[in-house]
């Protein structure tokens, strides 16, 4: 990793997270692809060239869903350990935490922050294999998206809204699924159309989004989730869509911009204006 990234994640985070099993899939396929598509439009040419070997002929949008698609794959990692990468929970009044020693190998990662750190560390390690870097890029793209879905930083006791049943136009679902899939699919847009509609070139807004870190992203998601828990009723319909679709669009837009910022910070030493997207050094 180039020397411009100077901040420490371990000093910024407190050890206080609690983890429970999760059935969650953030944003569904379309949502993740929207994030990848937006990010693609904000990569520098240097970054595009640098990540080409790790894409294996695919786009960021295409690889964005891979970690969810692999959850049914055989093997101890996919069956018992990979689900922990996708979310984080914190006890009331506690900060989201990160253990640096958990990022030394993929088997020990225990939450989304550690997964993001492991992925970035592997991508910038000259000793990492091509397979390891392809794995890490796929996860990084996916996890940046996950970190912006409110219920991937929700309450452990209800598995991030998975155990809260709601009715969406008389269709039985749960709060997590409502947010990761239903509200996105309700727009009736392809992921390319959705990305085109919500993408931005507003430099001030982009700069605002990039003044952040992965810890910021999960804190934002947690705060949103706590509000959503309070005002979601058993039945949701048009007014709920009206009030919450703007939140969904903003989170997808932020995730795409921030993903590009992270990749530019990792791979393009000249991307000075994008450095602040990443306050997590890899040593």
Summarize this structure as a short list of keywords or feature phrases.
about 280 residues, P1 Nuclease, 3-stranded mixed sheet, 5 strands, disordered N terminus, nucleic acid binding, hydrolase, disulfide bond
Tell me what you see in this structure.
With about 280 residues, the protein is mainly alpha-helical. It has one domain: P1 Nuclease (Orthogonal Bundle), CATH 1.10.575.10. The protein is about 50% helix and about 5% strand. A three-stranded mixed sheet has the order 4-3-5. It has a two-stranded antiparallel ribbon with strand order 1-2. A hairpin with a 2-residue loop joins strand 3 and strand 4. Helix 1 crosses helix 8, helix 1 packs across helix 12 and helix 2 crosses helix 7. The longest helix has 30 residues. It is globular and about 50 Å long.
What is the fold's blueprint, element by element?
Elements: E1 17-18, H1 28-40, H2 45-55, H3 60-63, H4 66-69, H5 76-81, E2 89-90, H6 112-123, H7 130-147, E3 165-168, E4 171-174, H8 175-185, H9 191-198, H10 203-210, H11 214-231, E5 235-236, H12 238-267
Parallel strand pairs: 3-5
Antiparallel strand pairs: 1-2, 3-4
Helix pairs in contact: 1-7, 1-8, 1-9, 1-12, 2-7, 2-12, 6-7, 7-12
Protein name: S1/P1 Nuclease
GO molecular function: endonuclease activity; hydrolase activity, acting on ester bonds; metal ion binding; nucleic acid binding
GO biological process, one term: DNA catabolic process
Using the 3D structure, state the CATH architecture.
Answer: Orthogonal Bundle
Strand content: under 5%
The parts where pLDDT drops under 50 for at least 5 residues are 1-24, 279-283
Radius of gyration (CA) equals 18 Å
Q: Give a count of the beta strands, DSSP E runs of length 2 or more.
A: 5
The strand order across the widest sheet is: 4-3-5
Which sheet architecture does the biggest sheet show?
Answer: 3 strands, mixed
Alpha-beta content class = mainly alpha
Order of helices and strands: EHHHHHEHHEEHHHHEH
CATH class: Mainly Alpha
CATH topology annotation = P1 Nuclease
Estimate the helix proportion, in percent. 40-55%
Signal peptide: 1-26
Protein name: S1/P1 Nuclease
Keywords: Disulfide bond, Endonuclease, Glycoprotein, Hydrolase, Metal-binding, Nuclease, Signal
GO molecular function: endonuclease activity; hydrolase activity, acting on ester bonds; metal ion binding; nucleic acid binding
């Amino acid at each position: 990793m180039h020397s411009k990234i100077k901040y420490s994640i371990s000093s910024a985070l407190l050890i206080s997270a609690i983890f429970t099993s999760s059935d969650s899939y953030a944003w569904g396929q379309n949502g993740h692809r929207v994030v990848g598509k937006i990010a693609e439009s904000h990569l520098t040419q240097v970054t595009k060239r640098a990540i080409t070997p790790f894409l294996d002929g695919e786009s960021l949008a295409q690889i964005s869903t891979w970690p969810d698609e692999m959850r049914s794959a055989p093997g101890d990692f996919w069956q018992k350990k990979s689900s922990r990468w996708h979310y984080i929970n914190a006890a009331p009044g506690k900060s989201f935490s990160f253990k640096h020693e958990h990022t030394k190998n993929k088997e020990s990662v225990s939450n989304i922050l550690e997964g993001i750190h492991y992925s970035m560390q592997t991508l910038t390690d000259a000793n990492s294999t091509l397979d390891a870097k392809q794995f890490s890029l796929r996860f990084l793209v996916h996890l940046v998206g996950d970190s912006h879905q409110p219920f991937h930083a929700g309450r452990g006791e209800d598995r991030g809204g998975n155990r809260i049943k709601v009715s969406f136009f008389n269709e039985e679902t749960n709060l997590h699924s409502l947010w990761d899939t239903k509200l996105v699919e309700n727009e009736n847009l392809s992921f390319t159309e959705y990305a085109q509609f919500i993408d931005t070139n507003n430099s001030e807004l982009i700069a605002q989004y990039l003044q952040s870190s992965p810890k910021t992203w999960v804190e934002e998601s947690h705060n949103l989730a706590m509000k959503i828990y309070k005002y979601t009723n058993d039945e949701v319909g048009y007014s709920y869509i009206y009030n919450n679709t703007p939140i969904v669009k903003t989170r997808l837009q932020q995730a795409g911009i921030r993903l590009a910022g992270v990749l530019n910070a990792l791979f393009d030493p000249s991307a000075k204006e994008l450095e602040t997207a990443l306050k997590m050094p890899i040593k």
